[in-house]
């Protein structure tokens, strides 16, 4: 019996993690974010109503689960409070059900400013970040300069630590980037105000998780971004600044590897990417446009159009191994309904071995295997017996290539549009 399930994106993000977390959260006692920040955009559709979550765990729409933000998450206090208030306006009780680690690095206005100015200065080499200050906040954590949420909630500590950070950033912004400085006094006031508002939600997330685990409670860890955006294993430097792969669960919450029973790899039936960087199977033709249109492929955080392409079994197999994936959830299968033939990249030409970084990735040319598309619709399908034979064959071929079993299917944005072949919590 799996009591502790990790949900990870196995591509470049936006695989549909939020939807699956929301769906499984009915059986979870806690839903936990462990990395990333409000660069994430997780879409939940329940009864026709859409909710996009950025840093609050996707268990918040269910009554049962406690929602926890672990120490590995970088938190922009204002963005988090705005998200809490937005949910409260919809009549959702959040504060009593949300626990935030005071050890989370704080994202402040200076981080956001540097992220944006730096992207601008990169010109054509820009990473295409979400502009949320994620990179600079993680940099400050590693350099030990940054403030944590605990520092914001304590007036003396805030005053002691913030001045040096603002000086440093303003030096960088004005002298190196020749940009405007940030307003230190404003950042300080807002940090103090937001720190006070967040304080009642502070929790010993690590301790709570240890207790829940001992009591046999069901835990759900919610990944943000995707494995190919991992700072170590992704398409560096076109990546995010955290470990989006399974290791992030441990460093970002303080549970051990033995506390993970099951890893669900959320995998879009094709591939998308927002922002710049290598993407071997990217399409610039009618097929790509059809994916974008049918899949409504626009970023949930920035609204940018997502680049689209065929499924890449080479990259997927590697990510599945890195994460120790137990089972796959294939999402957006319905988007492929309209295609007469579907393609899977089974090999790369032009590179030896698995690409190391962007330079090698750029040389990877996909070799495809073609399969017939399917007649009929999988949209909203909930009965596995109604799966068209060709769709079943596509999934079986995937299982073979990736060497991991398909345990779930998602067939529409709505919570109910899914098929569970093997339940993560009972497998
Ligand atoms: P996340 O970041 O991994 O949570 O994914 P996003 O929410 O950014 O993007 C996934 C998009 O696809 C959202 O608009 C979802 O509502 C939608 N979606 C999720 N699953 C399915 C599915 O099975 N079929 C279709 N057509 N849309 C889906
Ligand atoms: P979810 O959780 C898709 C991408 C950005 C950019 C790169 C670095 O919704 O799947 P950052 O702001 O993190 O420094 O940007 O990572 N990126 C995402 N792409 N989905 C996301 O989150 C992403 N979060 C960051 O577009 O290419
Ligand atoms: Mg998203």
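-> sequence recovered:
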């Amino acid at each position: 019996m799996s009591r502790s399930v990790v949900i990870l994106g196995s591509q470049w993000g936006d695989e549909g993690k939020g939807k699956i977390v929301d769906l499984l959260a009915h059986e979870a006692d806690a839903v936990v974010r462990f990395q990333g920040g409000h660069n994430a955009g997780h879409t939940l559709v329940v009864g026709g109503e859409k909710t996009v979550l950025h840093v609050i765990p996707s268990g918040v729409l269910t009554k049962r689960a406690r929602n926890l933000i672990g120490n590995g998450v970088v938190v922009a206090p204002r963005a988090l409070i705005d998200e809490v208030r937005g949910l409260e306006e919809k009549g959702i009780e959040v504060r009593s059900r949300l626990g935030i680690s005071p050890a989370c690095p704080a994202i402040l206005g200076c981080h956001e400013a540097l992220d944006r100015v730096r992207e601008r200065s990169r010109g054509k080499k820009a990473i295409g970040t979400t502009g949320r200050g994620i990179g600079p906040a993680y940099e400050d954590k590693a350099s030990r300069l940054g403030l944590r949420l605990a520092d914001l909630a304590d007036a003396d500590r805030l005053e002691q630590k913030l001045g040096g950070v603002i000086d440093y950033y303003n030096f960088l912004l004005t002298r190196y980037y020749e940009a405007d400085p940030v307003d230190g006094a404003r950042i300080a006031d807002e940090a103090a105000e937001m720190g006070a508002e967040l304080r009642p939600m502070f929790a010993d997330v690590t301790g709570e998780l240890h207790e829940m685990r001992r009591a046999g409670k069901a835990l759900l860890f919610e990944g943000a971004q995707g494995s190919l955006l991992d700072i170590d294993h992704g398409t560096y430097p076109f990546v995010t600044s955290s470990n989006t792969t399974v290791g992030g669960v441990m460093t970002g919450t303080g549970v051990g590897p033995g506390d993970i029973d099951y890893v669900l790899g959320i995998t879009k039936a094709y591939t998308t990417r927002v922002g710049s960087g290598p993407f071997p199977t990217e399409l610039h033709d009618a097929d790509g446009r059809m994916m974008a249109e049918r899949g409504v492929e626009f970023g949930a955080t920035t609204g940018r159009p997502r680049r689209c392409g065929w499924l890449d079994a080479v990259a997927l197999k590697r990510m599945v191994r890195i994460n120790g994936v137990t089972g796959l959830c294939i999402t957006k299968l319905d988007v492929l309904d309209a295609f007469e033939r579907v393609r899977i990249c089974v090999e790369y030409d032009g590179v030896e071995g698995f690409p190391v970084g962007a330079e090698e990735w750029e040389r990877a040319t996909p070799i495809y295997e073609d399969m017939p598309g399917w007649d009929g619709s999988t949209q909203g399908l909930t009965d596995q017996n109604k799966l068209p034979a060709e769709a079943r064959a596509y999934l079986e071929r995937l299982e073979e290539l990736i060497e991991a079993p398909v345990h779930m299917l998602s067939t529409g944005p709505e919570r109910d549009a899914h098929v569970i072949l093997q339940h993560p919590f009972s497998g």
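Residues 9, 12-14, 39-42, 127-130, 132, 134-135, 224-226, 229, 240-241, 274-275, 300 surround 6-O-phosphoryl inosine monophosphate (ligand 2) (CB under 6 Å).
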